[in-house]
Write a structure and sequence with these properties.
370 residues, 12 strands, seven-stranded parallel sheet, Rossmann fold
Amino acid sequence: MKVLLISTSERTGGGAIAANRLLHALLENGVEAKMLVRDRQTSDPAVVSIGNIWPKVKERLRLMWLLRTSLKHTWGYDLMSDGIDIFSTREYQEADIVHLHWVNQGMLSTEQVKRMVSSGKKVFWTLHDEWPYLGFGHYNSDTMRHRTLSQARYMTIQQQLSSRQIHFIGCSEWITERAREAMPLSQVTHINNCIPTSLFHPVAMLEARRALDLDENENIVLFCAQNVNDERKGLRYLEEALRQLPSVTPLIIGRGGLSLPPDKMPLAYAAADVFVTPSLEDNLPNTVAESLSCGTPCVAFRVGGIPEMIAHLETGYLAQPRDAADLVRGIEQVLSHPEYRESAAKTALQLFSPEKVAKEHITLYQKSLS
């Protein structure tokens, strides 16, 4: 069985990171797998790059015209109108399974996805966000801002995809149920993302702080995101909470905050007393899974798939959405319960084990081929 994972990027963005981790989990469990991307960041021999950004440029120009806005205001939306021709590649032609991940911004078009299915390929598509069933915005709040346009786009996408045999995979129960409601004729299965335990595992807090040259005696609250100023990530609620916690030291990592190499992130998690993610919308954030895997409890708003990850008052605290005062209570709760750290690490192994997640995918692939 040959599996081809397709992603716009190799490592940029949560969906790409999750896809890359699945690639290596499959390889470690004996599957012949490759990853096809437009944006390649490493020399990994299992990752193959193809195409250029021209389809993305065309798609963004169409989107700017449709929304009557500037480029910076097109983030959060996709038309999936243009894509890279992957059909002549050896990797695609030899694949028994084609597994789509985050393939927006000019990687694939909906017409190309339809062609894949029509050719007889077994096609899977992991829902890293809500775009595949919303058809315009990546999350419902984006979609609601352009309700009329979104409804038209949704009908177009469903006409192209819903009657086709695509097996969707939701990496949270939350998104799985939403997809089933939106696409009642489609197969949707829930499988978590995996976290590489060889990299993300508990390290003594003191050791981690010394390695990163952090104060050994402070209460450190960690927040990280690809773009910390993304409104959806809710940093303003954390900032409001921190103003009520003068004895706490924030550590903010990502574009707009401190820069840290990816291989140092496990140390950052281990060095923190608590990881806070005040996201207003989220699916199954890698950051929460990474933090728990390092034994660091999490505080988050009770939104999306996050309640499936954090056991309230056992591995962290689930606050009421958009309630900074409840974030304060959550941070104080975690700081006063160091036993949450051991529970966090145990829970992460149960939920995000690479071997477990790989085997669940393999079972699904094999069933489709039988």
